[in-house]
Write a structure and sequence with these properties.
With 205 residues, the chain is an alpha+beta fold. Helices cover 14% and strands 32% of the residues. It has helices at 29-37, 74-83, 182-190; strands at 4-9, 21-23, 48-52, 71-73, 88-97, 117-126, 139-142, 150-155, 157-159, 168-169, 178-181, 196-204. The strands form three sheets. Strands 9-12-1-11-10 form a five-stranded mixed β-sheet. It has a five-stranded mixed β-sheet with strand order 2-3-5-6-4. Helix 2 crosses helix 3 (182-190). The longest helix is centred in the middle third of the chain and has 10 residues, at 74-83.
Length: 205
């Protein structure tokens, strides 16, 4: 039986703040989370800037941030793509050192060259959802607002597709989660990818 795991980021214990990195304010900041969690196209910013603790960055490949969508290292992204293709879109990410004293940007919103920066991250948007939620064996309640949709999930069971799980994917029944296949988990661990926590999810054929 092929295994699958829910993947999440783990806060770096070296960091005193609540998160490893915080997304800078910009026009559209209030809706970027909802747009990135969905699979539809939208007008993306050319770059996302995060203010980060550089004791954690670049030590973590999956930093614990204040946004609801995955921020991962370019190396982690490359490893996942090499396992098997999946549908995605990205926004480049620039991490800025939170120890810098002064203005990060000038009056024309151009980044101050003196600010220590790290461009080795990206924001990941999934462009499709996998139809693997097992309605017969999962234990869940229906949404109070949309009764035709899944609400609270007490027991999550996924069906193994004939061609196997994609290396990383989402399901429409729980858009807040990201899942990885067993092969993807093994590849991440083999390459010493840091900052990831894995929770095995029950599967049935």
């Amino acid at each position: 039986m092929e295994k699958v795991y829910k993947i999440s980021s783990v806060k770096n214990p070296k960091v005193d703040a609540d998160h490893d990195a915080y997304c800078n304010e910009f026009d559209g900041r209030e809706v970027i989370g909802a747009n990135m969690m969905g699979i539809r196209d939208f007008d993306k910013p050319k770059m996302l800037y995060f203010t980060a603790d550089f004791l954690s960055i670049p030590d973590s490949d999956f930093p614990f941030t204040d946004v609801s969508f995955p921020i991962i290292s370019n190396r982690m992204f490359s490893i996942l793509k090499n396992v098997k293709q999946f549908d995605f879109d990205i926004i480049p990410v620039c991490m800025l050192d939170d120890s810098f004293i002064g203005n990060q940007f000038d009056r024309k919103d151009k980044l101050n060259e003196e600010v220590p920066s790290n461009y080795n991250y990206l924001a990941l948007q999934f462009k499709s959802c996998e139809d693997v939620f097992d309605y017969s064996n999962s234990d869940f309640t229906k949404s109070l607002i949309f009764p035709e949709k899944v609400g609270t999930i007490k027991r999550l069971v996924l069906k193994v597709p004939k061609d196997g799980f994609k290396p990383v994917f989402k399901i429409k029944e729980a858009m807040e989660y990201a899942f990885v296949s067993e092969k993807a988990k093994q590849a991440l661990e083999l390459n010493n990818i840091k900052g990831c926590a894995f929770e095995e999810i029950e599967t049935l054929t």
